[in-house]
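Quick start: what a row looks like.
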Amino acid sequence: MFYSILYPRREQHEQPRLETEPDYFGDLNLDQIFQPILTEEKGFGLKEKKTVGLESFFYTPLQDIEAITYRQEVMRELEDENLRAVFNGFAYTVYGIQMFVGMVHDALTSLQRWRDNYITRGQLLDCVERYIAAVDGLCAALAGMNLRSDGLKGFAGYLKDYAASDAFTAMRSRAKKLREQLSTVEYCMLIKHGVIRVRRYEGQADRAKDILAIFSKFSQGQTRDFKFHVTDESRDMRMEAIVLNMVAAYYKDIFADLDKFCEKYYNFIDETVSRFAREIQFYLSWLDYIAPLRQNGLQFCYPTIKNDARALYCRAGFDLALAYRTRGEPGAIVPNDFELNAPERILVITGPNQGGKTTFARAFGQMHHLASLGLCVPGREAALYLFDTILTHFEREEDINTLNGKLQDDLVRLRELLVRATSRSIVIINEIFVSTTLTDALTLGTRMMDALAAKNVIAVVVTFLDELATHGPETVSMMTTVDPEDPARRLFKIIRKPPDGLAYAMFLSSKHGLTYEQLSGRLKKK
């Protein structure tokens, strides 16, 4: 029995999900990645941006390869533009109906009783008809398609059975009959001296046609539209409701049927259809988000998810937040690779500052989180780790409330991180121990590497300490590169190679304003 397009089994869907961002989102810039998606304006006449209610799905990593594969298969299939357009139209239609129905429900239950009127009930009938058309239209569109993913096949089967069910066919029949009945309603309205009288239509001439005929002679092609949008709270609508109540007195049976219809179909949207229309946007919004990046030549792939860390890799990966921020700028993104083969588990990144080390570390964490959601990730191909949590240690400003120095704050945070880490954790540490001497930094850095190795975690360590890159067999040394003919020019390419012994010198030079760029800048001013 189909339940969710995001989970293969209902019990997985009902597991608790994170309602707030995980701690590592800010360090990895994942908050920047998801912000345009979670605050995307969905239209339907809404003036301000609204979240689409998908936060918990983007915040919560999956712990089950089956569920990740389920999502990957759905997203692969939605790469087809024609199929995506079909589901996109359906999702937006149902979403729009839900938004409008919410306003109708508010009107029907309002303390302002005049709002509980036949105009509002007619709007509910309109929503039911639009919903029926959307379901029937999607069924017809899917009937000729050969769906492959379990998720989309499951929903297509559910929708077919739902559309053929006694309850849905009865709603369709009753809505059609009621619309036919309402189309027979005719009445006359006399307005004189601020008084409105309503009576049955008895064959009187239609003055509206006469008026239109008279003024048609003045029509001269394209004219300005003087239509006025009537708000729910306007006096005109209130008057219309009063008039319609008077009309209902002459057609008691028809309007009684409308009352019964609204009572029966007050909540007419099927729960599973509603859930699908909301959750399918998880995939659609992601594909919309990465579309301009693909157009710029950046690659995305569906990684293999592994329970063990014996062979992890990514080809042509990149920092997605940076790519989105610089989209449209040629050459702004330089893809990089990494590879870990047992017993390797820790990438140590060294090299000159401003060479892309932190960007590489962020990209490593980003792609693992995105992969855990079942999304396609930056890169040509990848095999990534099924982690239990991601733990990060990035530079923070000193907290004056603790009365600790920067080194003590770093050590306290590092200890908390190591306590939380398990053998299935991913740890990302960026430029730690920069506030102490080289000797102390080496001592503390070596103990940190010992602890990471003992925990058996997957880790990325960005450091100015070359010695950490040769800590043991679990360690892989990677370095940022520069133009050999112009060492001041960073290439932002990070390659697998032993440290060259210049990292700490470059760090010290930068710290004291003695790099090539800093000295050149001062000399130019003179």
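That is the whole record. Confidence is low (pLDDT under 50) at residues 41-51. The domain at 296-525 is CATH 3.40.50.300 (Rossmann fold).
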